[in-house]
Amino acid sequence: MSGDVSDRDIAAFEAGIKLGALYHQFIGTPLSLETVEVVENAISRSVSLQPYVKAVKVRIDREKVRVRTTRFGYCELCGDMLDVQLVVEYRGVKVHASLKFDGEYPLMFLESVESH
């Protein structure tokens, strides 16, 4: 690893990788109003297993699920339904990051970076 890469850089990179993987792994998952909480928990628990992840909170917009539910009783998870908060800690650097729909596209954000 190059000396030009700081622990702060690595922590921010790890947060972005976790959010990108979450997004691409779970988009398209079938869900209904009855299973939305189970899907939220499954995503959170899956991501929390990854290195350096300290906390994950996943919220799926239930109104969008309700509106998009088909005559077959379910819809598919779409990026605009997700609101994710993530905390990654690497060597004393704690990164708070999020995935939110910005009105056009789901984007990932660095909310804060703290060094201990």
Structure description:
By secondary structure, this protein is α+β, with helices and mostly antiparallel strands. It has a single domain, classed as 7,8-dihydroneopterin aldolase (MptD) (Pantoate--beta-alanine Ligase, Chain: A,domain 2, 2-Layer Sandwich). Helices cover 34% and strands 34% of the residues. The strands form 2 sheets. A 4-stranded antiparallel β-sheet has the order 2-4-5-6. It has a two-stranded antiparallel sheet with strand order 1-3. A hairpin with a 2-residue loop joins strand 4 (82-90) and strand 5.
Give the oligomeric state: single chain
**CATH superfamily label:** 7,8-dihydroneopterin aldolase (MptD)
The end-to-end span amounts to: 22 Å
The total tally of domains equals 1
Look up the CATH topology: Pantoate--beta-alanine Ligase, Chain: A,domain 2
CATH A-level architecture? 2-Layer Sandwich
Query: What does the main sheet amount to?
Result: 4 strands, antiparallel
Beta strand count: 6
Helical region count? 3
Low-confidence stretches: none
Q: Name the average pLDDT.
A: 95
Short description:
The protein has 116 residues and is α+β, with helices and mostly antiparallel strands. The chain has helices spanning 7-26, 36-48, 62-68; strands at 30-31, 53-60, 75-76, 82-90, 93-101, 106-115.
Describe how the helices and strands are arranged.
Elements: H1 7-26, E1 30-31, H2 36-48, E2 53-60, H3 62-68, E3 75-76, E4 82-90, E5 93-101, E6 106-115
Antiparallel strand pairs: 1-3, 2-4, 4-5, 5-6
